[in-house]
């Protein structure tokens, strides 16, 4: 024990300098005399200031505001016919999980109830390494060409001069990129304002591949369905809460878990063989489309439960680093170009946000030992001891040796990439189904009002007219109702090619006869 008088922190620990020396007076700087200048020898004071000056790390460039918890994933159904991932080799297998939910566009202090998609990121710590599910609470996205992502996100960030958000930028983008319409239908529906982070579903959105040891694969989409249902707020409730309690979502989550009411999800997969993908009405690589449940039913896989609040938000949630490229053997990305782009973007931003050794931070570190030839760098915590920097022979995983034999399918994938370029009538079918079949009268009226409340703030008449023409391509009545609500004349639908016309054109130009067959 230290000989001098000591100051105890709340938990009874002796207050120390960062090198572990006890400090008797943490609230006083050392001076030459009672009025004298400060002393350079006062390591405690200098270190305190220097560390304080470096307390902030960059917030996430998107999804900056969020909440999280810990829990587990448990396999409840045998899907070993789909994937050789070790986690699926036995019903009852469990993986410790960490979740982070988030809004997308706002800064880390922005309101939890903003109308925005929600991120739903889960880290599963399996015996074969970490498998991250970096999902959203919507099954589709605004775009299918990743080059558009930074531009689209900038439309929701602050204007460089006014430092204000600008509805003209937002709708200017959407009106010129009508493949966004499916997501716009969901965003301005009741689901655009979920009631808290833990009362909503999650979706992979992208198509992934589940792969067997013999190299055969199925395309899959993963669905996380909240056992308590998807609960929403009205636009008015969300707006009021944004002012009165911007941290509503964080608070609800923390209190719910503290009370022992653990939120849970049932995990399902939709599956499709490569042959089915070639005949599918929509493009399996198209992130703006869903797979109809009747054709591709949900198959149960497991349970996801979050039963543990964090001890330290910064260490366990802010420093968490999720990436769709963190997969395990038996799971692979599809050729969806947006997914392919994300595989790069996340680890890249983690290296910027957390440093090159972000995978070694306790929350990100796998439960299995790391063995590779990566070396050193700032903040290396996990040493690989005397393992050499180079070794001549590495044993490959067996299933990787056997490539899928479907050569024709590779040709199909080439044509499917081309298929993503153009907006056609096909792009309005699923948004139209939401409007005409899923929304009841009340939901329709709320949708019109929610859009009008936002689009009505746009100054440019050109942008308003263009967006109304996109709504008219979904349904003329929908567009007319929005036009009336914002005091704008009615507008004719945007003219687009039929899907077959577009495909015939690309089949000839791209010399992909398979396109015609679809
Ligand atoms: C966060 C990029 C599309 C879900 C992020 C971050 C970046 C990013 C740079 C910040 C990550 C961090 O700082 O840790 C992109 C790009 C996209 C894209 C380039 C498209 C080209 C998507 C899509 C989804 C999604 C389609 C869902 C299906 C998420 C989630 C987070 C996130 C859940 C928050 C992760 C967390 O809580 O740490 N994205 N994103 N993103 N993104 Fe994306």
TrEMBL record:
<dbReference type="InterPro" id="IPR010582">
    <property type="entry name" value="Catalase_immune_responsive"/>
</dbReference>
<dbReference type="GO" id="GO:0046872">
    <property type="term" value="F:metal ion binding"/>
</dbReference>
<dbReference type="InterPro" id="IPR002226">
    <property type="entry name" value="Catalase_haem_BS"/>
</dbReference>
<keyword id="KW-0349">Heme</keyword>
<dbReference type="GO" id="GO:0005777">
    <property type="term" value="C:peroxisome"/>
</dbReference>
<dbReference type="GO" id="GO:0004096">
    <property type="term" value="F:catalase activity"/>
</dbReference>
<dbReference type="GO" id="GO:0042744">
    <property type="term" value="P:hydrogen peroxide catabolic process"/>
</dbReference>
<dbReference type="InterPro" id="IPR024708">
    <property type="entry name" value="Catalase_AS"/>
</dbReference>
<keyword id="KW-0560">Oxidoreductase</keyword>
<comment type="function">
    <text>Catalyzes the degradation of hydrogen peroxide (H(2)O(2)) generated by peroxisomal oxidases to water and oxygen, thereby protecting cells from the toxic effects of hydrogen peroxide.</text>
</comment>
<comment type="similarity">
    <text>Belongs to the catalase family.</text>
</comment>
<dbReference type="InterPro" id="IPR020835">
    <property type="entry name" value="Catalase_sf"/>
</dbReference>
<keyword id="KW-0479">Metal-binding</keyword>
<dbReference type="GO" id="GO:0005739">
    <property type="term" value="C:mitochondrion"/>
</dbReference>
<dbReference type="GO" id="GO:0020037">
    <property type="term" value="F:heme binding"/>
</dbReference>
<dbReference type="Pfam" id="PF06628">
    <property type="entry name" value="Catalase-rel"/>
</dbReference>
<dbReference type="InterPro" id="IPR018028">
    <property type="entry name" value="Catalase"/>
</dbReference>
<feature type="domain" description="Catalase core">
    <location>
        <begin position="16"/>
        <end position="398"/>
    </location>
</feature>
<protein>
    <recommendedName>
        <fullName>Catalase</fullName>
        <ecNumber>1.11.1.6</ecNumber>
    </recommendedName>
</protein>
<feature type="active site">
    <location>
        <position position="136"/>
    </location>
</feature>
<keyword id="KW-0575">Peroxidase</keyword>
<keyword id="KW-0376">Hydrogen peroxide</keyword>
<dbReference type="Pfam" id="PF00199">
    <property type="entry name" value="Catalase"/>
</dbReference>
<dbReference type="GO" id="GO:0042542">
    <property type="term" value="P:response to hydrogen peroxide"/>
</dbReference>
<feature type="active site">
    <location>
        <position position="63"/>
    </location>
</feature>
<feature type="binding site" description="axial binding residue">
    <location>
        <position position="346"/>
    </location>
    <ligand>
        <name>heme</name>
    </ligand>
</feature>
<dbReference type="InterPro" id="IPR011614">
    <property type="entry name" value="Catalase_core"/>
</dbReference>
<dbReference type="InterPro" id="IPR024711">
    <property type="entry name" value="Catalase_clade1/3"/>
</dbReference>
<keyword id="KW-0408">Iron</keyword>
């Amino acid at each position: 024990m230290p000989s001098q008088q000591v100051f105890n922190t709340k938990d009874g620990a002796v207050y120390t300098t960062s090198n572990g020396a006890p400090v008797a007076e943490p609230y006083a700087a050392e001076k030459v005399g009672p009025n004298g200048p400060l002393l350079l020898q006062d390591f405690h004071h200098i270190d305190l200031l220097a560390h304080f000056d470096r307390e902030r790390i960059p917030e996430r460039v998107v999804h900056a505001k969020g909440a999280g918890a810990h829990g587990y994933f448990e396999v409840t159904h045998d899907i070993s016919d789909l994937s050789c991932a070790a986690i699926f080799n036995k019903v009852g297998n469990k993986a410790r999980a960490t979740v982070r939910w988030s809004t997308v566009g706002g800064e880390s202090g922005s309101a939890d109830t903003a109308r925005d998609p929600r991120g739903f990121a889960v880290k599963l710590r399996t015996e074969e390494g970490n498998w991250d599910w970096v999902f959203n609470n919507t099954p589709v996205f605004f775009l299918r060409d990743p080059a558009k992502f930074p531009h689209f996100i900038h439309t929701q960030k602050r204007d460089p001069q006014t430092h204000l958000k600008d509805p003209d930028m937002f709708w200017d983008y959407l009106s010129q990129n009508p493949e966004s319409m499916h997501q716009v239908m969901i965003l301005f529906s009741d689901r655009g304002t979920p009631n808290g982070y833990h009362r909503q579903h999650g979706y992979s959105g992208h198509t992934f591949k589940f792969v067997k040891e013999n190299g055969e694969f199925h395309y899959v989409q993963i669905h996380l369905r909240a056992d308590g249902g998807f609960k929403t707020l009205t636009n008015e409730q969300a707006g009021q809460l944004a002012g009165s309690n911007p941290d509503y979502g964080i608070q609800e989550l923390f209190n719910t878990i503290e009370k022992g009411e653990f939120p849970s999800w049932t995990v399902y997969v939709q599956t499709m063989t490569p042959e089915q993908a070639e005949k599918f009405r929509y493009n399996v690589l198209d992130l703006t489309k869903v797979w109809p449940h009747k054709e591709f039913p949900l198959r149960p896989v497991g349970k996801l439960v979050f039963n543990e609040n964090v001890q330290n938000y910064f260490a366990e949630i802010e420093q968490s680093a999720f990436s769709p490229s963190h997969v395990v053997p038996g799971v692979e990305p599809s050729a969806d170009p947006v997914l392919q782009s994300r595989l790069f973007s996340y680890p890249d931003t983690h290296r910027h946000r957390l440093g090159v050794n972000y995978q070694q931070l306790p929350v990100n570190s796998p439960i299995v030992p790391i063995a590779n030839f990566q070396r050193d760098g700032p903040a290396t915590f996990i040493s690989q001891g005397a393992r050499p920097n180079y070794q001549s022979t590495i044993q490959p995983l067996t299933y990787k040796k056997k490539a899928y034999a479907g050569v024709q399918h590779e040709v199909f994938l080439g044509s499917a990439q081309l298929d993503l370029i153009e907006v056609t009538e096909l792009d309005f079918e699923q948004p139209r189904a939401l409007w005409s079949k899923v929304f009841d009268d009340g939901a329709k009226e709320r949708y019109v009002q929610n859009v009008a409340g936002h689009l009505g703030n746009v100054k440019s008449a050109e942008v308003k007219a263009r967006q109304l023409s996109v709504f008219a391509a979904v349904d003329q009545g929908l567009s007319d109702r929005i036009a009336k609500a914002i005091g704008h004349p009615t507008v004719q639908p945007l003219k687009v090619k039929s899907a077959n016309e577009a495909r015939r054109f690309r089949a000839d130009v791209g010399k992909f006869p398979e396109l015609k067959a679809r």
